[in-house]
Amino acid sequence: MKSLSVAAAFVASVQAGLRFGCSSLTIQRLDPVVQPGSDPSSHLHHIVGGNQFNATMTGDVGARGSCTTCQMAEDFSNYWTAVMYFKHPTNGSYHRVPVVNNAALASGTTGGITVYYTPYDLSRDNLKQQPITVFKPGFRMTVGSPTTNATQAAKHIGLSYNCLTTLINRGPEMRDFPTKPCPAGIFVTHHFPACWDGKNLDSPDHQSHMYNTITLDGFTNAPPCPSSHPVRVPQVTYETVWDTTKFSSLWKSGDPNPFVWSFEGTSGYGTHADYMFGWKGDALQRAMNKSECFYDGCGSITKQDMSVANKCTVKDMVGENIDGWVSHLPGMSS
Ligand SMILES: *[C@@H]1O[C@H](CO)[C@@H](O)[C@H](O)[C@H]1NC(C)=O
Ligand SMILES: *[C@@H]1O[C@H](CO)[C@@H](O)[C@H](O)[C@H]1NC(C)=O
Ligand SMILES: *[C@@H]1O[C@H](CO)[C@@H](O)[C@H](O)[C@H]1NC(C)=O
Ligand SMILES: *[C@@H]1O[C@H](CO)[C@@H](O)[C@H](O)[C@H]1NC(C)=O
């Protein structure tokens, strides 16, 4: 008993960082980072976060937001990824794969994304290591690219898949889609870089204002930022759980992976994610300045009940059918 409580106290006293859930906000063909102003954008996205989400987003989103699907009530940021579809192996029709909430999140989270802001890694306190500066209003970035292929391992750092054996048992990290049915779904992770050039809220490729010093996957501490990108920001990470289970019986043993991304990505290497900063005022900096508590911001951030978060919505601005069996991926020719 004694050694157990000592271990628990040790863990509690040395962790830092934020982890929280955001329910699904909307699934639409919009992309205010890569294709601002396009309604529709080229491919479908699963989006969580604040209700300022729109085809074009400029200025201080956090100041304008009036509701958010995130548990952290002052976070009007938007977080999004491509959408997973199942491609029927014999007739070629597509069906959207539903998102389920991460088993570790606050009860009441519906679908959604688990969001992390980690200042160091998952086991050490930040302030004793390095100061963390948070993003400015208008900041945005992407990680990964639909065009990345298996030969470009360096472009795939921090982007991974796990084949869930249960909702909490993830199995090993993989670079590509699983090669056989997963008993409890597919777990997808996107880690963003943690070094910023300190000047640009965006860049033409939405990535070169950021720099990734991590050469391994996972929640590892990034080596020091280079002089080109000297500002250490929180490492933002998304986790999404795709409930593939109802398609398992249609995936016959020996057949290739039938899951595709909404950009027609049959290779898992094209997985990518977009981030639009939208915290209100200094709420995120306040949380990052705290130490020795993980997950909840040490009381520095107002949390809302997920039943309130789930009431936050945005309009369907595209108005197309994305569900049921469809002959084409939304916006795609095949
Ligand atoms: C989205 O953009 C349109 C066109 O600019 C605007 O009319 C609408 O009010 C915006 N919605 C939100 C929630 O900002
Ligand atoms: C493909 O198979 C699914 C499931 O059996 C069925 O619902 C769908 O209508 C089929 N699509 C076509 C084009 O036949
Ligand atoms: C992968 O992408 C790189 C860079 O675009 C390209 O040079 C290479 O030919 C591609 N490889 C394959 C197998 O498609
Ligand atoms: C965070 O800490 C830095 C460094 O100590 C300090 O300059 C800044 O005012 C703090 N910001 C907030 C919002 O607490």
From TrEMBL:
Residues forming coiled coils: none
Protein name (database record): DUF1996 domain-containing protein
Domain DUF1996: 31-279
Keywords on record: Signal
Signal peptide segment: 1-16
Entries under InterPro entries matching the protein: DUF1996
Species of the source: Mollisia scopiformis
